[in-house]
Amino acid sequence: MLSKAKTQEAIRIMGEMFPDAHGELVHRNSFELLIAVILSAQATDVGVNKATPALFAAYPTPEALAQAPLEDVMAKIKTIGLYRNKAKNIKNCAQMLLDDFGGTVPHTREELMRLPGVGRKTANVVLGDAFGVPAIAVDTHVERVSKRLRICKQSASVLEVEETLMKKLPESIWVDAHHRMIFFGRYYCLARAPKCEGCPLLYMCQDGQKRLGIKQAK
Ligand code: SF4
Which amino acid positions bind [4Fe-4S] cluster, per UniProt (predicted)? Predict the structure, then answer.
C-alpha cells in the first residue's frame, strides 16, 4: 500500500500534470451545480453540459423548476441517460429545497443527502465545489486511480476509498486532490488504455510496472 507521504507525492505530481484541474460541470450558482451533479450520475459531464443551458434558461430557480411541467423537463434533458428518473428527481429536489431549506442549497452532507437523487458523492461535489467545504467525491476515476496506485485496497468499497484518501491527505487539499485525480483518470490513467509508458507516477505504480512487464523488487 502506498504510504501517506507517497500518496501526497502522487497528488502533487498530478497537480503538476494538471495545474488547472477543476470541476467540469458548467454552472452559475450552487443550485445549478446541484442539479448538474444529479444529472451527471452515469453520464458524462460533456453530455450534461450540452443539456443544462436550455434547462437552466427555462427554469433558473428552485421555484421555477418545482413548478415546471414534468414532460418539458424530460424533453430538455432527454439526451442524458436515465432522464425520466432524473427529471422526477430534480423537480422533487427543487420542491424540497423550497419546503425544507428556504429555497437555498443546504451546506451540510446530511442535509444534502436528504434531497432526491443526492447520494454521498453528489453531496461531496456540492460541498467542495459550491461551498469550499473539504470533501472528496469518489467517482469511477478517483476509485480506479486510487486502486491502481495502491493508495487503498483493491477490495475497498467507494466509502472505504474516500475514508482512506481522507486519512492519507491533509484536509486542506481534499477538494484539489479530487479534481486532480479525476483529470488524471480521465485524461491519462484511462480505464482501458492507461498511458503507463511515460507516466510520471510509474516509479511508484505497481500496476503500471506490471502492465509494462517491469520486474518489481520484492
Ligand atoms: Fe496509471 Fe499506468 Fe500511471 Fe500507474 S503507471 S498511474 S496505471 S498510467
Answer: 189, 196, 199, 205
Would you state the cell numbers that stand for residue 81, as one nine-digit string?
A: 441517460
Greatest Cα pair distance, the chain, in angstroms, is 63
Instruction: Evaluate if pTM is beyond 0.90.
Output: yes
Distance from the alpha carbon of residue 142 to the mean position of ligand 1, in angstroms: 13
Q: What Rg do the C-alpha atoms of the chain give, in angstroms?
A: 19
Ligand 1 neighbours (beta carbon < 6 A): 148-149, 188-189, 194-196, 199, 201-202, 205, 207-208
pLDDT digits (tens, 9 = 90+) for 125-174: 999 999 999 999 999 999 999 999 999 999 999 999 999 999 999 999 99
CA 208/CA 204 separation, integer angstroms: 9
Of all residues in the chain, what percent carry a pLDDT higher than 90? 97
- Kindly tell me if the per-residue pLDDT of 218 is higher than 60: no
Among this protein's residues, is 76 annotated catalytic?
no
Q: Which atom of ligand 1 is nearest to the CA of 188?
A: 8
Cell digits of residue 77: 434533458
Helix (H, G, I), strand (E, B) or coil at 109: helix
Active site residue 50: no
Domains and CATH numbers, the chain: 4-21+137-212 (1.10.1670.10), 30-131 (1.10.340.30)
* Cα separation, 169 vs 23, whole angstroms: 19
Residue 118 burial by CB count (10 A; 0-12/13-18/19+): exposed, middle or buried?
Answer: buried
- Residue type (1 letter), 109: R
